[in-house]
Design the sequence.
């Protein structure tokens, strides 16, 4: 089992979606033809954009004073924000090669992020009945999300993925009910540590833990 890693830099959301789809369709066609597949972990950063999952509710877009584009996508989950300073990870994985179901796959993605945050001294965990990575889940007033997850899967091949707030401008989340929640906060590594981090450095740490957990 192997994972290739690609760094796409800053790329428009729709363009990244199209490029993901090519990789996704290639793996599915390889599986149909009983050929070997190679899983790919893509890292990128998007210009300001809101995305709404296939089962999301448009009313969770509260207002849009900056006229940020809203893209309806085919991932799971509700509405979220992508923008500068946020690491977006797209694992295009053939889960059959890892002997994983979708639930266990999402658990491992969360775990890679949790371990990455621990590397920087941030204690994070999961929130029951909610995907993603959270801080202070035991507190009804301080519980906040640092990483959102939304996935599409077909024939046990995945696309879309996770968005980790590193140096993200969190004010853009005030215009939405992030992931459909009205009683949870949003945070970033910068917010928690009081300093910015180099995105490529964080991507290298994420890569280490992804390969540790999946390979």
Sequence:
């Amino acid at each position: 089992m192997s994972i290739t890693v690609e760094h796409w830099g800053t790329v428009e959301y729709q363009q990244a979606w199209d490029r993901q789809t090519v990789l996704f369709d290639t793996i599915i066609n390889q599986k149909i033809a009983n050929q070997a597949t190679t899983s790919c972990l893509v890292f990128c950063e998007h210009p300001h954009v809101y995305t709404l999952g296939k089962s999301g509710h448009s009313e969770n877009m509260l207002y849009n004073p900056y006229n940020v584009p809203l893209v309806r996508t085919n991932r799971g989950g509700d509405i979220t924000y992508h923008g500068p300073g946020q690491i977006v990870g797209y694992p295009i994985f053939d889960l059959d090669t890892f002997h994983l179901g979708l639930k266990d796959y999402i658990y491992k993605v969360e775990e890679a992020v949790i371990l990455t945050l621990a590397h920087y001294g941030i204690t994070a965990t999961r929130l029951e009945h909610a995907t993603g990575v959270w801080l202070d889940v035991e507190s009804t007033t301080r519980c906040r999300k640092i990483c959102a997850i939304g996935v599409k899967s077909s024939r046990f091949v995945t696309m879309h993925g996770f968005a980790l707030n590193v140096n993200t401008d969190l004010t853009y989340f005030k215009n939405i009910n992030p992931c459909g929640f009205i009683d949870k906060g949003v945070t970033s590594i910068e917010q928690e540590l009081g300093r910015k981090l180099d995105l490529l450095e964080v991507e290298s740490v994420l890569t280490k833990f992804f390969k540790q957990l999946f390979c």
